[in-house]
Specification:
This protein has 383 residues and is α/β, with parallel strands linked by helices. It has twelve helices and 14 strands. The strands form three sheets. It has a six-stranded mixed sheet with strand order 6-5-4-3-1-14. Strands 7-8-9-10-12-13 form a six-stranded mixed sheet, with helices on one face. Strands 2-11 form a two-stranded parallel ribbon. Strand 5 and strand 6 form a beta hairpin.
């Protein structure tokens, strides 16, 4: 029989993030989130804090298209290893307070694939050790230069394994089954569904979601999609976003907060509806979740009938293995160019219909024209 999981408090940390240039500069961001965790653990002491979630890129920050775009050399200058001295500092806090800490979007250099960086989430546990590591799967080609496992899929699977439990890991802990996904992973159902399949009960969701992608009302894309992810997989979802950012090329509210805690029915428990630093606290009741999952009524797993959907995934849409070992992605333009093939396939399948005056093959040409214009006018890097 399973041992009862007592109520505990989870923290969602919404810090100010500095976009740093070197690994030596990281400490300012690390010190800030460490102090915010210390605050939360002390302030919410009556129901002990056992989990904290930090946002994507909380450690190093990141540059996006335009004057501040980060190239691969910029990112490698601030890359770390996991485990490593930076993550060890969070491990020491986890050990001190008998808790788990999840951080995301760490610019990680992976020894097995040198000369490139992965966007990496981690969970450290009460021993101070890393108990889970996840490499972001859905890195948006138009804005994310990091390597996805999909970019060198065959080599990645050969090194680490290609099973769904390896690619989308869940760790069974005394505070429930923990998993994690990163920012854009939550925009579509697949990563959350894989974690749900693997048994996740608390889905830790670091993000650096920008206002242009729909954080605030009335669009509210960040909230309604994640409520769906929690509802469909019957799990808690803890979404951490930047409070504000310190970078010469960004507005302060570039990623405007709105961190939240959502329960296993899709109900919003707590929300920080503003772009400023905050520590959000929520009570996690794993036993209530497990009892809720015993009901047949409105159970999003027991009525799942999968046979009719196989064709969706039989053939690749975004092609794998485009950045194999020795050939890392170097510019955003290089990555987004692959979308031309995706557009061609979407129109070929009939998933999309071309606008009036365009043929199915014209859309990839239109994208190429946009890329060339952006490069020629300094909006995207050429190298």
């Amino acid at each position: 029989m399973n041992k009862r999981v007592e109520l505990y408090t989870a923290l969602v940390i919404q810090p100010e993030v500095h976009v740093v240039k070197t690994r030596a500069d990281i400490q300012k961001n690390l010190d800030r989130v460490c102090n915010m965790i210390h605050f939360g653990v002390g302030y919410f002491w009556e129901v002990p804090v056992r989990l904290a979630v930090l946002p994507e890129y909380f450690l190093q920050g990141v540059g996006t298209p335009g004057k501040g775009e980060s190239g691969i050399a910029d990112q490698m200058a601030k890359a770390v290893t996991i485990p490593g001295p930076e993550i060890d500092q969070l491990g020491a806090i986890a050990k001190q307070y008998d808790m788990y800490i999840c951080g995301g979007g760490v610019v990680e250099e992976v020894p097995e694939f040198p000369g490139r960086w992965f966007n990496t989430n981690f969970i450290v546990g009460p021993t101070g050790d890393v108990v889970l590591k996840y490499h972001k799967w859905h890195i948006p080609a138009y804005i994310g230069l990091g390597t996805s496992p999909h970019d060198l899929f065959d080599a990645y699977c050969q090194k680490f394994g290609g099973d769904i439990k390896t690619l989308f890991p869940v760790v069974d802990t005394p505070i429930g089954k923990l998993g994690t996904m990163t920012c854009h992973d939550g925009c579509t159902p697949e990563v959350a569904r894989a974690l749900g399949y693997n048994g996740v009960e608390v889905l830790c969701h670091p993000a650096a979601l920008q206002e242009v992608e729909g954080v605030s009302e009335p669009w509210d894309f960040w909230m309604f999609t994640r409520r769906a992810r929690a509802h469909d997989n019957m799990c808690y979802l803890l979404g951490a976003n930047w409070g504000k950012v310190n970078y010469e090329f960004y507005p302060k509210a570039f990623c405007p907060g709105h961190s939240f805690a959502i329960d296993y029915t899709g109900l919003v428990l707590r929300h920080v509806p503003y772009p400023e630093e905050q520590v959000l606290a929520v009570t996690i009741d794993i036993e209530a979740l497990r009892m809720y999952r015993t009901k047949a009524s409105h159970n999003c797993w027991v009525d799942l009938r999968t046979e009719g959907f196989k064709q969706i995934y039989e053939k690749p849409l975004y092609p794998p293995n485009r950045f194999p070992p020795g050939k890392p992605p170097r510019t955003l333009a290089e990555k987004v160019s692959i979308c031309k093939e995706v557009f061609d396939e979407l129109y070929r399948r009939g998933t999309f219909t071309a606008p009036a005056g365009y043929g199915p093959g014209d859309i990839s040409k239109l994208l190429q024209e946009r890329i060339e214009y952006a490069q020629n006018t300094g909006r995207l890097r050429k190298s």
